[in-house]
Design brief:
The protein is an alpha/beta fold. It contains 31 helices and 34 strands. The protein is globular and about 80 Å long.
Length: 892
């Protein structure tokens, strides 16, 4: 974005903080100018308003944009506005699964820039971009003292080419830093170290202070909203555009206020609270909206508790789950060893700008509200396949049993001289994992204390459970060590397995061979229990058909129980050494025990020590060879990093849009199809199109790694698109997985093979889907793979925010059925040939388009759909064939 050149409302002022002076854009001056009741705006919109003030330039941001946001009317339809504004984040956060393809795209743009006669060095991040390698560690080894080292070594062996590529990027691009592997999870590192809360930047000798803001290439970027930092997850292509100076175009959002009061009761955790909140907000309907938490209940929540709630904004569907800055924020910054001058600046700036909350702060005005008495929260789980499907712990057994479609099956196993029984409902994975909960010391220490009490009572985990402990930063292992809890966790086989997303992202690793074989041969409904945020079908492990989210202490409890059809309240977990039954209530730590352990074990110097040299990496990282040159030297033989085809044959000017004619439907999909269904991140089956490609290129199945780790190779990823083993294409009746029926031949084949056959026949493709299409991760490959398969449009009943935006960003047209209409209600099957009209004429935001569907007998049905290209910027991106092509042409 060009430097701000206007100050229409004369809001520039000076702020003193300690011995330093900063230029700021004072919100109070805007209210004095009569622009609106800024004081009562939600805190999140105040931050957005300051962003507009600071970037007003007459090109991207105009005075009327500022006036529209300052005068925000929450009484409109849902509180939303049709007014488009531009938001420019202060920085970009990346993780390696999404970060590698982002750097691949930037490297490819440099090549394209040179080919088109421009300067390749113009392709360079203009904002600070920080990448944390956290998604690649897999739980291969577990339950032993050397689990971490084995998994770390395997990670480096598998990913040495990717990591070398990132080291090239770190050297070749300005403003780009990489946190090496085996350090932590990006959101926890962001919360504990990277987040500034108030940013300061110098230009021409003048220092400006402004609210920290970001976009991240991971849905759970919202975790930092708990710290009062403004931002959310976007697809990698949007993040790349932001890095290259392009603002994010958005409509002024509705803001739903969520009032909290009271305090959590004994026995309830932050995980129980966030699962309750997720259920409430999904029911409310907050997709595309900001959610802002307010009320006196905030004062009873620790900063990590707030971060746990903010983290799961994608699960409740909101763009953000925002918590204002208050005394707890300042205390957390000091506790995590932030510089004292920085903490003082945060306090001074937020108080000066009306961004500091107290229990006496008047409630902001909101589009809509709901409230929750924290005292009503009970122990809760969510499953078996959606985060919003919360169930009280007391009903978990009955809820699971109800999901079984036939009488439970049982199989007797022999292992190391012991005999045990596997059955429908056996918990085969129990994982303490994920940024959602591992950043919360009360939850992690609670798990350790429960383990201690269980061991002292003589309990043990069941032998068929794959246990793992994967924290989001090294600080966690420090305080577990200081609390003396490692011996008890290790005794229950919850050994350290790595620092990263592991099981939550699908890197749960293989189950022991005998257990996996028994599950497959007997078609058992195996279960995973994890302290994560995602439990979609096929994500956690291909052999786990039911997956439940739970707090870390409950993860340990289910490893002790070993099955999901277990009444945690009324059934004993086992007998102690004296033969007395031990119930969960007997070993559940009290809040006082957790609080005392936290005070004794967690200290500020741990954060200072672990983050002192966070970008350095170990000897393996430092020894990686770094390719030279401003242009990346692509290796044709590489199966990890390939030059993508997005810019091949790209002209200097975009071609005129034309209507879409003769589309065949590649897949008809149901409701709640996630980006995991569209572009899985986990295991690559040997008999899949991606597996066959790798084998043909000399890669053995043991070296496949995962789809997530292969995202730098478009050949693998397009073959993996719509390849989730739980995907159901309704055109391929009776199948499960990535199957299609080629039309009109009727031949059954993989979706990839069908797409290639259609390509050879010059037939453009359509995807038809139900509600909430593209929910889940901010997976830009779900859009990239879609366009590479030849899909020109996706017609759904509704879209999740990020995936809709990603489709536009890759040049795929998202279309919505009109309210009340569906494929079925229109009397269509998906086997028709479709024409979509309205692109060749003036194409504008949210245009209504005409669709004609012609069946095999020549009968035609016409209906109207809504083009979900929502803003003028998105129209421009679509006209250029995608956001990257648009940016490249702008830079030329």
């Amino acid at each position: 974005m060009s430097p701000a050149t206007k100050n229409s409302f004369a809001t520039k002022s000076t702020l003193k903080s300690g011995a330093d002076s900063f230029e700021i854009y004072r919100l109070a001056e805007l209210e004095k100018a009569g622009a609106g009741n800024v004081t009562r705006l939600p805190f999140s919109l105040k931050v957005l308003l300051e962003n507009l003030l600071r970037h007003e330039d007459g090109r991207f941001v105009f005075a009327e944009d500022i006036r529209a946001l300052a005068g925000w009317d929450p009484t409109g339809v849902g509180g939303a506005s049709e007014k488009e504004i531009s938001f420019m984040p202060a920085r970009v956060l990346l993780q390696d699964f999404t970060g590698v393809p982002a750097v691949v795209d930037l490297a490819a743009m440099r090549d394209a820039m040179r080919a088109l006669g421009g300067d390749p060095k113009k392709i360079n991040p203009l904002l600070p971009a920080e990448l944390v390698i956290d998604h690649s560690v897999q739980v291969d080894q577990f339950g032993t003292a050397n689990s971490f080292q084995i998994n770390a070594d395997l990670e480096m062996q598998r990913n040495i080419e990717r990591y070398g590529f990132l080291r090239w990027g770190q050297k070749g691009f300005d403003n780009f830093k990489v946190v090496p592997p085996d350090t932590g999870i990006c959101h926890q590192v962001n919360l504990e170290y990277l987040a500034r809360v108030v940013f300061s930047a110098e230009k021409d000798g003048v220092w400006t202070a402004f609210p920290d803001s970001l976009v991240g290439t991971d849905s759970h970027t919202t975790m930092v909203n708990g710290l009062g930092v403004f931002g959310w997850g976007v697809g990698g292509i949007e993040a790349e555009a932001a890095m290259l100076g392009q603002p994010l175009s958005m409509l002024i959002p509705a803001v739903v206020g969520f009032k909290l009061h009271g305090a959590l009761p004994e026995g309830a955790t932050a995980t129980d609270l966030v699962l309750t909140v997720t259920h409430m907000l999904r029911k409310k309907g907050v997709v595309g909206k900001f959610v802002e938490f307010y009320g006196t209940g905030l004062s009873s929540l620790s900063l990590p508790d707030r971060a746990t709630i903010a983290n799961m904004a994608p699960e409740y569907g909101a763009t953000m789950g925002f918590f204002p800055v208050d005394r707890e924020t300042l205390a957390y910054l000091r506790f995590t060893a932030r510089n004292e001058d920085q903490v003082k600046l945060v306090e001074a700036y937020c108080k000066e700008q009306g961004l500091f909350r107290t229990d006496h702060t008047p409630d902001p005005i909101f589009s809509d509200t709901l409230d929750l008495d924290l005292g009503s929260v009970v122990p809760t789980m969510a499953g078996p396949k959606r985060p919003q499907d919360s169930v009280p712990l007391t009903q978990a057994k009955a809820s699971f049993v109800k999901t079984l479609t036939e009488s439970p099956k049982h199989v007797t196993m022999q292992n190391n001289g012991h005999s045990y029984e596997l059955a429908d409902g056996s918990v085969v994975i129990a994982a303490i994992t994920s940024c959602t909960n591992t950043s919360n010391p009360s939850l992690m220490l609670g798990a350790g204390l429960l383990a201690k009490k269980a061991v002292e009572r003589g309990l043990n985990t069941k032998p068929w459970v794959k246990t793992s402990f994967a924290p989001g930063s090294k600080v966690v292992t420090d305080y577990i060590e200081k609390a003396g809890l490692w011996p008890f966790l290790n005794s229950l086989r919850f050994n350290l397995v790595g620092y990263g997303c592991t099981t939550c992202i699908g890197n749960s690793g293989p189950l022991p061979e005998a257990i996996g074989k028994a599950i497959k041969e007997n078609n058992l409904v195996a279960v995973s229990v994890l302290s994560g945020n995602r439990n979609f079908e096929g994500r956690i492990n291909p052999l786990c058909r039911a997956n439940y989210l739970a707090s870390p202490p409950l993860v340990v409890a289910y490893a002790l129980a070993g099955r999901m059809d277990f009444d945690m309240v009324n059934e004993p977990l086992g007998d102690d050494k004296a033969g007395k039954p031990v119930y969960l209530r007997d070993i559940w730590p009290t809040p006082q025990e957790v609080e005392q352990t936290m005070r004794e074990a967690v200290s500020s110097d741990m954060f200072q020590q672990q983050y002192a040299d966070v970008f350095a990496g170990d000897k393996h990282w430092q020894a990686l060879p770094i390719p030279e040159g401003d242009l990346y030297a692509w290796d044709e033989k590489s199966t990890y990093i390939k030059n993508p085809p997005y810019f091949e044959g790209m002209p200097l000017k975009p071609s005129a849009l034309g209507d879409l004619k003769g589309l065949r439907t590649l897949a008809v999909l149901g409701d709640s199809v996630t980006t995991d269904h569209i572009s899985p991140a986990g295991t690559i089956p040997a008999d899949s199109p991606a597996g066959k490609y790798l084998i043909a290129h000399g890669v053995q199945p043991k070296d496949f790694n995962s789809y997530g780790a292969r995202r730098g190779n478009h050949e693998v990823m397009m073959r993996g698109t719509f390849a989730n083993i739980r995907l159901r294409n309704l055109l391929a009746v009776g199948t499960e997985g990535g199957w299609a029926i080629h039309q009109p031949s009727g031949e059954k084949m993989s979706i990839y093979d069908a797409a290639m056959k259609y390509r050879d026949e010059h037939v453009p493709l359509l995807i038809i889907a139900g509600k909430e299409y593209g929910s889940g991760s901010s997976r830009d490959w779900a859009a990239k793979g879609t366009i590479l398969l030849g899909v020109r449009a996706v017609l759904a009943e509704s879209f999740e925010r990020i995936h809709r935006s990603n489709l536009v960003g890759m040049g795929v047209l998202p279309l919505e059925f009109l309210p009340g209409e569906t494929l079925k209600s229109l009397g269509l099957t998906g086997q028709e040939i479709f024409d979509i009209d309205g692109l060749a004429q003036t194409f504008q935001p949210r245009k209504k388009m005409q669709v004609r569907a012609r069946d095999a007998q020549g009968k035609v049905k016409e209906f109207t759909v809504l083009a979900r290209v929502d803003t003028p910027f998105e129209v421009a991106y679509y006209q250029h064939g995608g956001i990257l092509q648009y940016v490249l042409r702008q830079m030329l």
